[in-house]
Amino acid sequence: MHKFITLISGRGSNLAAMCKAGLAPYISCVISNNPNAKGIEIAKKNNIPVCIVNHRDFISRENFEQAISLVIDNFPSQLIVLAGFMRILSPWFIEKYPQKIINIHPSILPAFTGANAQQQAFDAKVKTTGATVHFVTEKLDHGPIIASGAMAINHDNDDVDTLCNKILKLEHILYPFVIKKILNDQVKVLANGAVEVIKDIADDKILGKFKSNIHY
Ligand code: GAR
């Protein structure tokens, strides 16, 4: 399998889920823009090299991204995985790695883009929300969709915290699943911009109880 780089800013629960799914040996480096990110400890515990590139140490976004890209280019990687990375990436950076950057977002895109997607879904009183893994393009949360997971909101019993936790559980299955698909060359972007994910007999077992929630 190919290797990948993960960019984080905080808690790192998606990074932990990748490690739990057996992906730690394939993460060549974790880059954090936040020196206090909890995810740094998770990377260290899993023997993954960590590089802190604090955006506050740079006078411009361009300089910050150049520093990140220097790190990226020094490690083997076929893929750049954003896992709670809370900096907007410039067109320069995105164009440097075409169809190589993926993100997970806590809604069924294209609904509820931007910050606090779970709160947005809750406030909109929708009955279904979820999480989406997509390729990163210049337009925030709008790149080609690889896979989405859906789950019901129970407006009688859920609050935003319970909703965030439910979505996070889905994310923790969805993201490692998609990453493995890409590393195994089972994801293709078609000429019309749609993404084809090749199915496998092992998929249902990997997705477990989420198999009917996840669409790809
Ligand atoms: C996750 O819920 C992820 O979907 C979200 O940040 C959280 C990171 O959690 N990302 C976005 O909202 C991106 N627009 P983690 O640090 O525990 O993985």
Helices and strands in order:
Blueprint: E1 4-8, H1 13-20, E2 27-32, H2 39-45, E3 50-52, H3 61-73, E4 79-82, H4 91-96, E5 101-105, H5 117-123, E6 128-135, E7 145-152, H6 160-183, E8 187-189, E9 195-197, H7 203-207, E10 214-215
Parallel strand pairs: 1-2, 1-4, 2-3, 4-5
Antiparallel strand pairs: 5-6, 6-7, 7-10, 8-9
The chain binds glycinamide ribonucleotide.
Can you give a write-up of this model?
The chain is α/β, with parallel strands linked by helices and 216 residues long. The chain has two domains: 1-97, Rossmann fold; 103-216, Formyl transferase, N-terminal domain (Rossmann fold, 3-Layer(aba) Sandwich), CATH 3.40.50.170. 32% of the residues lie in helices and 22% in strands. The chain has seven helices and ten strands. It has helices spanning 13-20, 39-45, 61-73, 91-96, 117-123, 160-183, 203-207, and strands at 4-8, 27-32, 50-52, 79-82, 101-105, 128-135, 145-152, 187-189, 195-197, 214-215. The strands form two sheets. It has an eight-stranded mixed sheet, sandwiched between helices. Helix 2 (39-45) links the parallel strand 2 and strand 3 (50-52). Helix 1 packs across helix 6. The longest helix is centred in the last third of the chain and has 24 residues, at 160-183. The radius of gyration is 17 Å and the shape is globular. The model has no long low-confidence stretch (mean pLDDT 97). The structure holds glycinamide ribonucleotide. Glycinamide ribonucleotide binds at residues 10-14, 39, 83-84, 104-106, 117, 168, 171.
